[in-house]
Design goal:
mainly alpha, flat, 191 residues, 3 strands, binds zinc ion
């Protein structure tokens, strides 16, 4: 009896494998049924069915969840009252925001206004600004170092004088410019 079940299970896998081969889907797993105790139902390409409260389909020989359909389902399941403030949700905009926010439009507006002042929001924008400043510091430093080495390579060895270079600026001048620039840029960071 058990042997029989195993044989049956095996042949199901073979069928699945064969189907995958036919649809050109050689990479797809054929062992999806391991530990799967539910009754096997034959599904073919394009079938749509409900399982575990979600909507599934077979696409390219692989079982896939339909998220879009889930969203539509949620929309249809919109409660009469906002779960957050208890207001009767009758506005057109309530219907629009509910699937994404799970609350009424007014609550979403409040929520967005509140989040703008939260630490998290501030931190996010501070980090954004700092990373921009850091990037500028990096680029500026590289640019200045380049200028300095250029002055060294071209003028120091030939003229034997560090202060004597292209732009009329000495190595010290350049270094001062670099330090001042860095100081200014670092002051732009928000700690
Ligand atoms: Zn509400």
């Amino acid at each position: 009896m058990k042997d029989n079940v195993l044989k049956k299970e095996f042949s199901k896998k073979d069928v699945q494998r064969a189907r995958n081969l036919i649809t050109g889907n050689t990479d797809s797993r054929t062992s999806q049924g391991v530990g799967y105790t539910k009754k096997y139902e034959h599904r073919k390409e394009g079938d749509v069915w409900e399982e575990d409260g979600r909507t599934w389909t077979i696409k390219n020989g692989v079982k896939q969840n339909i998220t879009k359909m889930d969203k539509f389902k949620k929309m249809g399941k919109m409660p009469l009252f906002c779960p957050e403030c208890g207001t009767l949700m009758k506005k057109h905009l309530d219907k629009k925001v509910f699937p994404a926010y799970q609350k009424c439009f007014d609550c979403v507006v409040d929520y967005e206004a509140k989040i703008k002042h939260t630490d998290e929001h501030r931190k996010y924008f501070n980090n954004l600004r700092n990373s921009h400043v850091d990037h500028t510091i990096e680029a500026f430093t590289a640019y200045m170092k380049d200028k300095m080495s250029e002055s060294n390579a071209n003028y120091v060895t030939e003229a034997g004088d560090v202060e004597n270079w292209k732009g009329g600026l000495s190595q010290e001048d350049l270094d001062k410019e670099l330090q001042e620039g860095l100081e200014f840029l670092k002051s732009m960071r928000i700690e």
